[in-house]
């Protein structure tokens, strides 16, 4: 009976979107919170229940399905990506319309909001300059949530996230296909974070993020994209990708991949350590690769 009372008394956490990172978050929060996960896929309900969550079927693309989420929880983690077209994030706009007052919300954004920075190293004070619609949708989402937070007296933390890696999230298929990479002269700096560390960062932000604060959820790696591919190739005894100048490479890769290869930046993460108190499990990509070699 005591256990039943304790369970009922847990505060609620609402999670929107529960892919790989969300599933890694669940073990970190389910003992402390009654976790309610919004999914648009009814077939995922059994999996989510088995992971300790309470699934609710709703669709951020369908505002009429969201009414029951209003005031359901005052701690919210927004992991759902924008829709795939347009410059506005309609999903986040639909969500903001039903969010409660005086809540705590952690939003998972992207480092792509900065656009190409010519390899510069910078902190969270740098202005956004999105160069494609995908990043523009993220900037729109951040803006919408900031306006909601100011209006409602809520605490918002924005985590800008780079390329996510893990043991099962490495570019092995790309390497096996022999997809080329940029020549050293044209190569770009990339940023990285391990999926487990990102889950931990999101939980830390629930507790310790300052209001209306942006955090770079990045590890300490400082690698160019080709160096990353080479390091993974060495670990798995695969051929390193051939290197081509940008003028030739753009004829062989998808427009989305080319857009990633057109942006170079090095994000600093002092706020992550000093304000959120995060101690990364994987300080660099190489730290994970060493465990796999």
TrEMBL record:
Q: Taking every annotated instance into account, which residue ranges of this chain make up the domain RmlD-like substrate binding?
A: 102-273
Matching entries from InterPro entries are given as: NAD(P)-bd_dom_sf, NAD(P)-dependent_oxidoreduct, RmlD-like-bd
PANTHER family tied to this protein: NAD(P)-BINDING DOMAIN-CONTAINING PROTEIN-RELATED, PROTEIN YEEZ
Record organism:
Herbaspirillum rhizosphaerae
According to the lineage, what is the superkingdom? Bacteria
In terms of Gene3D superfamilies, this protein maps to:
NAD(P)-binding Rossmann-like Domain
Q: What SUPFAM superfamilies does its record include? A: NAD(P)-binding Rossmann-fold domains
Q: What is this protein called?
A: SDR family oxidoreductase
